[in-house]
Amino acid sequence: MNGLVHIYCGDGKGKTTAAVGLGIRACGSGKRVLMVQFLKGTTSGELNVLRDLKDFHILPSLDRIKFTFQMTKQELEETAALCAGQFHRAASAVHAGEYDVFILDEVFGAVNCGLLDKSLLIDLIKNKPQNLELVLTGRDPEPEVLELADYVSEIRKIKHPYDRGIPARKGIEF
Q1: Is this entry keyworded Transferase (predicted)?
Q2: Nearest 5°: phi and psi at 62?
Q3: How far apart are CA 33 and CA 133, in angstroms?
Q4: What is the pLDDT along the chain (174 residues), one digit of tens a residue?
C-alpha cells in the first residue's frame, strides 16, 4: 500500500490533536509511528500517554522552549541546530524502514522561522519511502508543499479564549 502525505494547517486549535489521533489509530493497527515536535517543550499532556505506547516513538525536544520572537540570536542558532538534528535523525530512521508513519508536528513553524531548511522538507516529501505515511502540521505551509500533499485539512480559528486573555490550560491546550 502506498503511503500518502497529510497536512493539518491553519490558525485554529487541533492540528497536533488531529496528527496524534491519526498516529494512535495507526499504532492501534500495528503500525510503527515516529513523531518529532518542533518548537514545543516536553510538558504537553499527550506526551505522557504516547510514551507508554509500544510502537509510538517521540524524539525528545527541549524541556521548555520560548517563542522565537523571545529568543536571542544565540538561542535561535541553538534551536535551529536542534531542529536540523531532530529532522536528520528522524529522516534516517524513516528511510531505514523503522517506521510506517512519520509525524512532523509544527514543522511549518520551524521552516517559516528559518530554523529548518525548506528544501529538507521538500526533499523528504518527494523521496519518502513508498509505503510511509507522512503527516505535517503547522501554520502557513508553502504553496509548493501544499501541492505535493495528498490530504490538506485547514483548521481555521473562528473564536479562541486566548483572544480574551485566557492563557493556555494544562490538559486542554498543552
Answers
A1: yes
A2: -70, 150
A3: 9
A4: 799 999 999 999 999 999 999 999 999 999 999 999 997 766 677 888 898 899 999 986 665 666 777 778 888 788 888 889 999 999 999 999 999 999 999 999 999 989 999 999 999 999 999 999 999 999 999 999 999 999 999 999 999 998 999 998 888 888
- β 33-37/5-9 pair status: unpaired
- The domain limits of the chain are 5-158
CATH topology assigned to domain 5-158? Rossmann fold (3.40.50)
Scanning the structure block, which residue is given the C-alpha cell 493539518? 8
Give me the DSSP letters along 99-164: -SEEEEETHHHHHHTTSS-HHHHHHHHHHS-TT-EEEEEES---HHHHHH-SEEEE---S--GGGG
- C-alpha cell of residue 45: 499532556
Which amino acid type is present at position 64? R
Residues found in the chain = 174
